[in-house]
Every structure is written in structure tokens, then in C-alpha cells.
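Protein entry
_____________
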Amino acid sequence: MLSIFRRLMKNTQGATAVELTLITSIIAVAAIASMRSVTGKVTNVLNAMGPLN
């Protein structure tokens, strides 16, 4: 039983996967927030230009 616990303590692959998942999710949330902000500003500029007929 003690040897199984020692092997689990030495295994860091699971921790690395969790860290990468957290970093990826933080980047995704930041990207979505910035896209929403830019989308609103682009929409305002296009509406101010009027129809392109």
C-alpha cells in the first residue's frame, strides 16, 4: 500500500494536465470578453457609416 502511495506522489502528469486546462480556460474567457467588446465597437462604427448602397 505504501508503494502505491509513493508512486502516486511521484506522478505529476495529472497536475500538469490540470494546470494546462486552467490556463487554457483563462485564455478562452479573456478572448471571449475582448471579442464582445470589439464586436460592440465595430457594430457602432458600421451603424454610424450608414447603408452602403
